[in-house]
Specification:
323 residues; mainly beta; 2 domains; 11-stranded antiparallel β-sheet; 23 strands; 35% strand; globular
Length: 323
């Protein structure tokens, strides 16, 4: 792998002397303080004993042009810093039984599977609530997770901007942090909010297609495959065509009736949920000053959404910080 200066491209040397370049929509590399190009590492690593003592933070992001530090103390929270600015963000008035857990990549086999290293405050706002932080190449992703309806639709955080000025958009959709000396310079921002429940959408057209495929035959019995999509070939290997076309015919009407019944049930469920959107952007920020460069940021989710009878918990509310 070639480490060139293009932050959005990874180039590999091939055995035949050619090169293969992969381009990404976000930077995969960064330049350190010495100007050396390095790969971004979004993992979460334990800090040194010295750093724990001096800074009070227990974990740090692997490698990037900025640092993200995580404290086991929810009142201390996280710290994002660069050469030019820093942001401290914490849960405001965390629940007395809040605990901090560092989740390794894909190591949670209980309620959720984390595909990247994550830092989680369990019981952040009370039982059955949590706040999960995940490093990204360009910032930090924050998820507020509600395992069930806990009767809350507002979630308060405290931020310390170290003198920089937070600006709430007119619709409450975003917060930009402007330089304290020049409000035209945006240092970082809190992105647009949305929420999703855990409803798994069913593709009725796909179900119908699979049903049609399972009861059809190929006109050419010498073909080695049916006309099922290649991505599903392994799943349907048991019905591949042979010299006897009858071998892929259903044995009785029971097969057909069962599939029609299953498809009808899925159609009924889809219709039942058709009026409720399991994804909502009816989420916004509230911002108020606490003095001394500290502010309260409140994430507000539609109570109608959270209380809807068709909602499927857990619900994830997604704000992110982009640097």
């Amino acid at each position: 792998m070639v480490l060139d200066d293009d932050l959005y491209t990874v180039t590999a040397d091939n055995s035949d002397g050619t090169k293969t370049a992969c381009m990404f929509g976000m930077p995969v590399k960064y330049k350190d303080v010495d100007g050396t190009t390095k790969f971004i590492d979004t993992s979460i690593q334990e800090t040194s004993i010295l750093k724990k003592v001096t800074d009070g933070y227990d974990y740090i992001n692997g490698a990037n042009e900025f640092e993200v530090e995580f404290s086991k103390n929810p009142a201390k929270g996280i710290k994002v810093s660069t050469e030019n600015y820093s942001l401290i963000m914490s849960i405001m008035n965390p629940y007395s039984e809040t605990t901090a857990i560092k989740k390794n990549k894909a190591n949670d086999t209980e309620k959720r599977v984390f595909t990247e290293d994550s830092f989680v405050y369990e019981n952040a706002f009370g039982a059955d609530t949590s706040v999960k932080y995940t490093n990204t190449n360009v910032g930090l992703k924050e998820d507020i997770i509600l395992d069930k309806n806990v009767g809350l639709n507002k979630f308060d955080f405290e931020i310390d901007t170290k003198g920089d000025i937070p600006i709430l958009s007119s619709d409450g959709a975003t917060i930009t942090i402007a330089d304290k000396s020049d409000p035209n310079i945006v240092k970082y921002s809190f992105g647009k909010l949305f929420a999703d429940d855990s409803f798994e959408k069913t593709n009725i057209d796909l179900a119908s297609q699979e049903l049609d495929s399972s009861i059809s035959t190929s006109s050419d019995c010498s073909s080695e495959k049916t006309d099922i999509d290649l991505d599903s070939q392994a799943h349907y290997s048991s019905i591949s065509a042979s010299s006897d076309c009858s071998s892929i015919q259903p044995d009785s009407d029971e097969f057909l009736q069962t599939n029609i019944a299953n498809t009808s049930a899925e159609t009924q469920k889809s219709t039942q949920d058709a009026d409720f959107d399991h994804h909502t952007e009816n989420v916004y920020y509230e911002l108020s000053s606490l003095g001394d460069s500290k502010y309260k940021v409140t994430v507000v989710v539609s109570s109608d959404y959270l209380n809807n009878s068709d909602i499927v918990y857990p619900v994830t509310i997604d704000p992110s910080v982009t640097l």
